[in-house]
Structure formats: structure tokens, C-alpha cells
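Extended Data, panel c. Modelled sequence:
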Amino acid sequence: MTGGPARRSLTGNIAHATVVEGMVPRVQDRSGRCGACRRPLKGEKMRTVIGAICVFASSLHAATLAYVDSRDRLVYQPEGGKPVVVDRNGYEPSLRRDGKQLLYTRQESPTSPKRTLVLYDVASGRSRDLISGFVSGPVWSPDGRRMAFTRLEAKVWQVWVMDLAEPAKASRVSEEEMDGVAGWSPESDTIICYNQTNVYWIGLDGKTRRKVPTSVFYRQDLEWMSSNKIRIHPKNPNLLAVSAGYSETQEGAPADETGMTFTVALFDINSSKRDLVLTKKVWGDEAEWSPDGEWLYFRRLEARGFAVWRVHPDGSGLERVAAGSGPAVAE
């Protein structure tokens, strides 16, 4: 694992799109919602239906977001509002569930991997430095009191936890080498983290409560990389979203400059069932759950750069949200 994701220059314009890639959703299902985007049909204004595909002209997105925009700036965008620049050197955003505060890492120098963990308060517009060093990937606890993150010490990346009220007392959770934090238990007493070999459920007391081998979802067709992202469903502790690259070239699929195609998969621990969320026509990674678990926001490779898109876990409702990468989502 390195000191964080490499900076990329992104291009494109913020826009709100709808169903693409040849999908043919139902206009209405039994719940009275659109089969494509799941929004209620009754009372919905500014809607046009073209054939079987619905198009919204009402707003750019339907959630509070943070992401790195097309000008390589970390921005905060409230639901239905315009993006606000938080930091010109900020990355790896993580929004508190209510969207009132934002955690991220700030790159201190283009020539150094050292970073600072920063807390941004939306109401005041002020930022507060928490801890500096080789730190990466902050993730809020559901109760909004703590964050988990990875920290490099003695050439080993490990998971640490910090109480936001006492950042100087941040402590290591486990001696195990880790690539990242996948999330927390709903009770905020267990951190889910992962490395090449396993996904771990580790209590705040440092004891491992559960362990699942990564081979059960990578299998033969997906490749492990330290930059892969795994995220636990916010309500279902047995459902993982895995962003990873295909181990072999996919004919006809879009590929990045390294020749790889990335995708997003769901893995149910109880049933051992794995489903690919994206078709091979869609290059996607950095998937993050919405707090209600109804959407996956992810980074998609486009002709002119990267953009944030979202999709339902069953693969429906695919739509573009904004030009950028590294999405974080709040209620």
C-alpha cells in the first residue's frame, strides 16, 4: 500500500443523466416507483418519459456528496446545492452520516506521501487538523464519535481508531497488517478491515471477532491489489461491496492506461453468492454505499476522464452524478 491514491487530472462537466447502457427498465413497478430510478411516480414534477426510460430535469443528484472534482479539488455538495471547494489538496473524503462534517486527508507536498487527517465542519466552513504522518482512508463510525483509519509505522500499515473529541489519543486497534477499512458495525463497536488474505471484524478491544477469506469473492476472475476498496453494507453486516480489477483482459470492455478493467461486485457472506453489479461495458471502482444501502456511488472511467456515477445494488438505475472521483455519501 502506498501513501494514498495518486492524483489525477479529471475533466468533464457536472450533469445529471439517467439510464444508459441499453437497459430497458419498467416505467412503474408494484410499489408505484419508477423501475429505473426507484423514485415515486405520484406528485413527481419535471419528469418526461421517453419510451421506457425516465429522465429527470429537477436536480443534479439526490444526496449530499463529497468528491474530488474535475479540477482536482475536494468539494462538498449538499443535496440539491452547488459544490463548495473544501481543499485544493484534499483526498479520500468520508462524510458523517448526517453530512454535517467531513473527514479527509490532505497531501502536504507533491514529493512526499505524508498526509494530514483533517476534520471539516460544514456549518462554519472551518477545517481542523487532527494528525499528520503516513495516514490514509478515514471512515466515520455510525454514531459519529470516532473514525478508523490506516497508519504506516515501521513499514507496516495498520488500523487505528480516533475519538474525534480526543485526537491526540488515537490508538492502534490491531497488530495485523491491513490495506484499508471497510466500515463499522451498526453499533460502532467493531471495525471491519481487510488485507490481501482476509476481511476482519475487530472489536475496539483488539480482539478479532470474525474473519472471511478474500479468495471467496476474488475467485479466479478478479485480481487483488492493495488499492482495491471493500465496503460493508450499512445495515446488512453480511453484504460486502468489492471494487477490483479483472485478472484478465476483457474483450470489448473499456480499459484504463494500464490496460485493466475494474468493476464492482457484491458478496453475500452467508450464501457465498457473488454478483457483479456492473456490466463489462462499464469501468467502475471506488464504490461507496449510500447510508440507506439503496445506492452504490462509484468512479467511472469516461472518454474524457472520470466521473461519479451511482447504481442500485441490483444493477438498475445507473446514472451520472458529477465529473470527479473518490465519492463519499451522506443522508
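The mean pLDDT is 85. This feature is highlighted in the accompanying rendering.
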